[in-house]
Specification:
heterotrimer, A mainly alpha (316), B mainly alpha (354), C alpha/beta (397), B: mainly alpha, two-stranded antiparallel sheet, C: 397 residues, alpha/beta, Rossmann fold, 2 domains
Chain lengths: 316, 354, 397
C-alpha cells in the first residue's frame, strides 16, 4: 500500500500542499489580524509580502558584493523585516489613520490605492522582470532521504521545504506564546473580540494597532521570503497573486482567529495541490486550468454557508 | 487638418470608453450608492454581458459556439437580461453577506466566471477569444448586414458597397460614441427617476438603518436583491458595449479586475457614491486621466530628457506604464483625503411635501 | 505648476516638430504579464531605429525615423486605447507591434483596419490572424503562424523518436493556440498523447500537476512563457523527477531559463524558435549588430522585432513618404523581392539602391520575410539546445 499509494502521494501532493499551506497561513495571519482589529480587508497586504521578498533579494546581492558570498535568505531577511514593518507603520500613519472613524469602504479603497502605489513603486525601482532568487534546482535533502528510506518510507523533501515548514512551526509557536502570555498579545485578542469593551478597560487601542502591523508585517515578509525560497524567483506581481487565496484562508479560519488563519491556509494549500491528484482514474480530479478556482470556490461556499469560518470567528 | 480630425477622433474614443465606464459606475452606484452592496465582481458581470453579446451577434464561426448572427439590439437586450439572471442566482445566495464579505465573495465569483469562460473552449474559444464582433453603425458596412432587410429593400449589394466605400473611413465613429452616450443618458434618467421614487427612498432607508426599515415592515432582503440585479444588468449592458468597442474579447486581460473592477470603484468613490451625476463625472474624469496620462507622461519624460541633457531616459520610458499606475494610486489617495464624499456628494431626495 | 507643465509640453511639441520625421507607432506589452519577454524586444526595435537614423535617415533629405512607443499591456482594452492615441494624436504612418495575439486582433479590428493603417506585428502568432481581414491587406506579421510552428515541432518530436508525451500548456492566447496545433499534428503523425491539460499561469507551485501528468510518460511538451509558468514547471518537474525530457516552442528558449535552472539540468530539453538559419549571412549580420548593441540576438521574437522595425523603414523609404495608403504595397515590394538582397542593418545600401531606382529584397534576422497574401510569413524554425551554457540553434526546415 505504502509503495503504491503513499510514496507518490506524500512526496508529490502532500508535502507540496503543506509548503503552499504554510506560505498561505503566514500571509493570512496578517490579513485576519487587520480584519479583526482594524476591521477592514487590507488589499495592500500582498504588496508588503512582495516588498519584503524584494528587499531580502537586495540584501542578498549586497552581501555578495561586500562579503563575497550569498547569505542564507533567512539571515538576509532580518533587515528587510525592519524596513517592511516601518513601511507598514508609515502607511498606516499617513493613509489609514485619517479614516479610522470613516465608513469601511473608504479605508478599503485607501488600502487598494496603497496596493497600486507600492506595487508600481517596486516596478519602477526594481523593474517588472522576474529576478532570480536562488539558482538551480533543489535536490531532495539526502540525509532525510537516507534516514527515511532506512525506515521504508523514502521522503523526498528539498532542504528549502524543510526550512519553510520548520520556520512556520517556530513562528507559530512564538506567536502563540505572544498571544497567550504577553500583555500586548492579550490586549490584541481583547480588541479583536470587542473593541468597545477593550477601550473601556483602558487598553491603548493605537498601541494595539501598531502591534498588529508589526506582527502582520513580520509574518507577511516571512511568507514572501518563504515563497521566494520555494519558487526561487521573485516578481512584482507575486503578492497580488497570493492575495485572494490568503483572503480565502483568513475567512475559512474565521476572521480575527490567527490560528484559524493557519488552519485555513493549510486547507487551501492542500486543496489546491490535491485537486490535481488522480483520485478517480488517471487524469487529474480537476483540470489544472481550474486550479485558481479551488480557493475561490472554497471561499464563496464558506461565505455562503458558514461565514464565521471553521473556528467560529467574528461576523460583521 | 489631419491633426485636428485626429484629436477629434481621439476625443470620440475617450467619450466612448468613458461612457462604457460611466455605465459600469452607474450600475455600481445602484449596488453601492443606493443599497450599500459592496460588489467587487464588476469584471465578471461585464464579462457575462460581453460574451452573451459576442456569441449572439457574431457571424457563424468555427472557433466558438454559434456565432448566431442575431441583430445587435437583440444582443444588447440579451446581455442585459442574462447578466440579470446570473446576478439573481448569485444575489439570492449571497445577499445576506455584509460589506467586506460580499466584496470578497463577489471577487471570488467573478474569478470563477472568468475561469469558466477561459476553460469552456467549445463555447468561448477559451483564452484565444472571440473576434469580429460587430460594432453598432460600423456593422452596416459588412455585407451580411446590408444584404438583408431592411437595407436590402433600399438598394442592392453594389449600391451599398459603393455607398460605404464613398464615406470617410471614420463615419461611424461619432455615431457610435453618440449611441453609447445615449445609453448613458437613458440609464441615468431611469436611475434618477428610481432614486426619487418610493423605491429609491426605501433603498436609502435600508442602507442607512436596516433594522429600522425592517421594523417598518419593509422586505429588506428582496429590495437588496433587486438593487443587486438592476446594478448588475447595467454592468452587463456595459460589457456588451465594451465588446463592440474592442471588437475582440478574451477572458484574461480584457476583464482584468484591476482595470475593470477597481478602476470603476475609484471612479464611483471619486465622483461621489450615491449621486448618479457623480458616478458619470467620476467615470469620465478618471478615464481621461488614465488614458491621457500616457501622452502627458511621455511628453514629460521628453522634457526631462531635454532639460538634463544626456541622461538615459529609456529605462524611465519603458517603465512609464507603471508610473501611470502610481499616478492613479496617488489620485485616489488625494481624493479620499480631500473629498471623502466624492466630488459631487450625495444629495438626498426631498421628502414628499417639502 | 500647471503653467510649467503646459509650457513644457508646448516646448517638447515644438522641439519634436522642428525637424522633419516619419513616425511609426510601436505599441508593446511593456506592462502586463510578460515584461521579461518584451524587454529585449524593445531593445531590438530601438536598435533598428538607431540603424536607420545613423545611416542617413529616411529619404534624400535625411528625415528622422521615429518610433513612438506606447503600452499595449497584452490587454485588448489597453491596446485599443494606446493605438487610438498613436493613430489619431501622434498621426503615425503605420503600427509595429503589439506583442500578444489578442491585443493585435483587437487593435487591428477596432482601430487600424477601419482607419486604413498597416499593422506589422512582431510576435503575434495566433492562427486567427491569418483570416482576420477580408481583402484589406492591412495586417502583416514577421512571426510565423502557430499553424506552421506547431506542425514543425510535431515533426521534430517524431523525428527525435518521441512517441509518447504529455502536454501542459499555459491557458493564454499564445500557448493554448500552439498547443492545439501541435497536439493534432502529433497525433496525425502517429504519436500518443497520454495527457493534455491546460494550466493556470502564475501559480507558485505546479508539483501536483506535473506528478499527475507524468504518471505515464517521461516526455513533456511544455507550452508556456518562461516568465509566468515555464520556469516553475521545469523546476518542479526536475525536482520531483516527473519528466526527464522537455520540449516546446518560442516562449521558453530564453537565456533566463538557463540562468535560473542551470545548464547542467537542461541537457534533455529543446525548444523551437522561429529564426533564420544561424549559418546564413542574414543571421550573421544581425548577430554582429545585436552583440555590439548588447541585445540578446536569439531570444524569443527579438529578431522578429528587429525585422519588423527595419522593414517598416525600408518600406517607407521605398514609398518615398509616410503616406499610410501606400505602405502595404511598399512592404510587399521590399520583402518579397525580386531585387538586391539586403541584410539586417544595411540601410545605407538599401537607400542607395532605391535612390538609383533599383529594387531590394530584405532577408531578415528571423528568416526571409516573404509575405503571403494574408500577410503571414512562412516559418523557418530552429531547434535550440543548451550547449556551453547558452542556447544553440540549428535550423530544422
Amino acid at each position: 500500500m505504502w509503495e503504491n499509494f503513499g510514496f507518490e502521494f506524500v512526496n508529490y501532493y502532500f508535502i507540496p500542499g503543506l509548503v503552499l499551506g504554510c506560505i498561505y497561513a503566514l500571509g493570512a495571519i496578517g490579513i485576519t489580524l487587520t480584519f479583526g482589529i482594524l476591521r477592514f480587508a487590507n488589499f495592500a497586504h500582498g504588496e508588503i509580502m512582495m516588498t519584503g521578498a524584494f528587499l531580502t533579494w537586495t540584501f542578498l546581492e549586497i552581501s555578495n558584493i561586500f562579503l563575497g558570498f550569498y547569505m542564507h535568505p533567512l539571515i538576509a531577511c532580518t533587515p528587510a523585516i525592519f524596513i517592511a514593518i516601518f513601511l507598514a507603520l508609515s502607511v498606516d500613519r499617513y493613509f489609514y489613520k485619517p479614516f479610522r472613524d470613516s465608513p469601511t469602504i473608504i479605508i478599503v479603497m485607501a488600502s487598494f490605492g496603497m496596493m497600486l502605489i507600492i506595487r508600481s513603486l517596486v516596478q519602477v525601482i526594481w523593474g517588472p522582470n522576474q529576478i532570480t532568487f536562488v539558482k538551480g534546482i533543489a535536490k531532495p535533502n539526502s540525509y532525510l532521504k537516507d534516514f527515511s528510506s532506512s525506515m521504508d518510507m523514502m521522503l523526498l523533501v528539498p532542504s528549502k521545504h524543510l526550512f519553510i515548514i520548520l520556520g512556520t512551526i517556530i513562528i507559530m509557536l512564538a506567536f502563540n506564546y505572544m498571544l497567550t502570555s504577553t500583555r500586548i498579545g492579550k490586549a490584541m485578542r481583547a480588541v479583536s473580540d470587542s473593541p468597545d469593551l477593550a477601550k473601556v478597560t483602558g487598553i491603548d487601542v493605537e498601541q494595539v494597532i501598531r502591534a498588529t502591523w508589526i506582527v502582520g508585517g513580520f509574518c507577511a515578509v516571512m511568507a514572501g521570503v518563504f515563497m521566494a525560497m520555494d519558487t526561487q524567483f521573485i516578481m512584482s506581481t507575486m503578492g497580488f497573486r497570493m492575495l485572494l487565496p490568503m483572503f480565502a484562508a483568513a475567512i475559512l479560519g474565521g476572521i480575527g482567529r490567527p490560528f484559524g488563519a493557519v488552519l485555513g491556509g493549510l486547507v487551501i494549500g492542500f486543496a489546491e495541490e490535491l485537486s490535481a491528484y488522480p483520485w478517480f482514474g488517471n487524469g487529474p480530479l480537476l483540470s489544472p486550468g481550474y486550479k485558481s478556482g479551488v480557493a475561490f470556490s472554497i471561499l464563496v461556499l464558506m461565505l455562503v454557508f458558514r461565514p464565521s469560518g471553521i473556528l467560529k470567528g467574528r461576523v460583521f | 487638418m489631419d491633426e485636428l480630425i485626429g484629436y477629434f477622433l481621439y476625443f470620440l474614443s475617450l467619450l466612448s470608453v468613458g461612457g462604457i465606464y460611466a455605465l459600469l459606475a452607474l450600475g455600481l452606484n445602484v449596488n453601492w450608492g443606493f443599497a450599500g452592496l459592496f460588489n467587487a465582481g464588476i469584471a465578471g458581470f461585464a464579462a457575462v454581458g460581453a460574451y452573451t453579446f459576442a456569441i449572439l451577434t457574431t457571424a457563424e464561426s468555427t472557433f466558438h459556439y454559434g456565432g448566431l448572427g442575431l441583430p445587435i439590439i437583440i444582443g444588447e437586450i440579451s446581455a442585459f437580461l442574462i447578466a440579470g439572471i446570473i446576478a439573481a442566482v448569485i444575489g439570492i445566495i449571497s445577499i445576506r453577506l455584509r460589506a467586506d464579505y460580499l466584496a470578497i465573495a463577489t471577487i471570488g465569483i467573478a474569478e470563477i466566471i472568468k475561469l469558466i469562460f477561459k476553460n469552456q473552449v467549445d463555447i468561448t474559444n477559451g483564452p484565444r477569444g472571440i473576434n469580429k464582433i460587430p460594432r453598432t453603425w460600423e456593422h452596416f458596412s459588412e455585407s451580411r448586414y446590408f444584404s438583408q432587410p431592411i437595407l436590402s429593400w433600399i438598394g442592392d449589394n453594389q449600391f451599398w458597397q459603393a455607398f460605404f466605400d464613398s464615406l470617410v473611413n471614420w463615419w461611424w465613429q461619432p455615431l457610435f460614441a453618440a449611441t453609447i452616450l445615449f445609453f448613458v443618458f437613458v440609464v441615468y434618467m431611469m436611475l434618477e427617476r428610481a432614486r426619487v421614487s418610493p423605491w429609491g427612498r426605501m433603498m436609502t432607508a435600508i442602507r442607512e438603518n436596516e433594522d429600522a426599515a425592517r421594523a417598518a415592515g419593509k422586505d429588506v432582503t428582496r429590495r437588496r436583491v433587486e438593487a443587486f440585479i438592476i446594478g448588475t444588468m447595467i454592468m452587463g449592458l456595459a460589457g456588451a458595449l465594451l465588446a463592440q468597442h474592442l471588437r475582440f474579447i478574451e477572458p484574461t486581460h480584457t476583464f482584468d479586475p484591476s482595470k475593470m473592477t477597481f478602476l470603476v470603484w475609484v471612479m464611483l468613490i471619486a465622483g461621489g457614491s450615491g449621486n448618479n451625476r457623480g458616478a458619470i463625472l467620476g467615470a469620465f474624469l478618471i478615464w481621461f486621466v488614465w488614458s491621457a496620462s500616457e501622452l502627458f507622461l511621455n511628453g514629460f519624460i521628453d522634457i526631462v530628457a531635454n532639460i538634463f541633457n544626456g541622461i538615459d531616459v529609456s529605462m524611465l520610458k519603458n517603465r512609464s506604464g507603471y508610473l501611470r499606475m502610481l499616478l492613479i494610486g496617488l489620485v485616489l489617495q488625494f481624493v479620499l483625503q480631500k473629498y471623502p464624499k466624492g466630488i459631487l456628494p450625495e444629495r438626498r431626495p426631498a421628502a414628499p411635501g417639502e | 505648476m500647471k503653467k510649467i507643465i503646459l509650457t513644457g509640453i508646448a516646448s517638447a511639441a515644438l522641439a519634436v516638430s522642428a525637424s522633419a520625421e516619419v513616425k511609426v507607432g510601436n505599441p508593446m506589452a511593456v506592462t502586463g504579464p510578460i515584461p521579461d519577454l518584451v524587454a529585449p524586444m524593445l531593445l531590438a526595435v530601438d536598435l533598428a531605429e538607431k540603424h536607420v537614423n545613423e545611416q542617413g535617415g529616411l529619404f534624400a533629405d535625411g528625415q528622422k525615423y521615429t518610433i513612438v512607443r506606447a503600452d499595449s499591456g497584452c490587454d485588448p482594452t489597453a491596446a485599443v486605447d494606446a493605438v487610438t492615441k498613436l493613430v489619431n494624436v501622434e498621426q503615425v504612418s503605420a503600427i509595429i507591434g503589439p506583442v500578444c495575439s489578442g491585443a493585435t486582433i483587437a487593435q487591428a479590428q477596432s482601430v487600424t483596419m477601419p482607419a486604413g493603417v498597416v499593422t506589422l506585428s512582431v510576435s503575434a502568432s495566433s492562427p486567427a490572424i491569418s483570416s482576420l481581414e477580408s481583402g484589406t491587406d492591412l495586417v502583416f506579421r514577421t512571426a510565423a503562424s502557430d499553424a506552421f510552428q506547431g506542425k514543425a515541432l510535431a515533426e521534430l518530436a517524431i523525428a527525435n523518436g518521441i512517441m509518447d508525451l504529455a502536454i501542459s500548456y499555459a491557458n493564454d492566447d499564445y500557448n493554448a493556440a500552439i498547443a492545439a496545433v501541435f497536439a493534432s499534428n502529433y497525433e496525425i503523425l502517429g504519436g500518443t498523447i497520454t495527457a493534455n491539460e491546460a494550466h493556470e499561469p502564475d501559480k507558485s507551485s505546479y508539483r501536483s500537476e506535473v506528478a499527475t501528468l507524468g504518471a505515464d510518460t517521461n516526455n513533456l511538451a511544455l507550452f508556456a512563457y518562461y516568465g509566468s509558468s515555464g520556469i516553475t514547471i521545469l523546476r518542479n518537474s526536475l525536482e520531483t523527477g516527473a519528466f526527464d525530457l522537455f520540449f516546446g516552442a518560442d516562449g521558453m528558449a530564453a537565456q533566463e531559463v538557463i540562468d535560473q535552472i542551470g545548464a547542467e539540468n537542461l541537457g534533455n530539453a529543446f525548444f523551437t524558435t522561429s529564426t533564420s538559419d544561424q549559418t546564413t549571412n542574414a543571421f550573421g549580420a544581425w548577430k554582429a549588430a545585436a552583440d555590439a548593441a548588447n541585445v540578446p540576438a536569439a531570444d524569443p521574437f527579438v529578431p522578429n522585432s528587429y525585422d519588423a522595425a527595419f522593414m517598416m523603414a525600408l518600406a517607407i523609404e521605398k514609398l518615398g513618404s509616410g503616406d499610410r495608403a501606400g505602405i502595404a504595397s511598399a512592404l510587399r515590394a521590399i520583402a518579397n523581392g525580386p531585387g538586391e538582397v539586403i541584410l539586417p542593418g544595411e540601410f545605407a545600401k538599401a537607400k542607395a539602391i532605391l535612390a538609383a531606382g533599383g529594387s531590394i529584397h530584405y532577408v531578415g534576422a528571423s528568416g526571409p520575410q516573404d509575405f503571403f497574401n494574408n500577410g503571414d510569413v512562412a516559418g523557418f524554425f530552429s531547434k535550440n539546445t543548451v550547449v556551453d551554457g547558452a542556447w544553440k540553434a540549428e535550423i530544422i526546415k
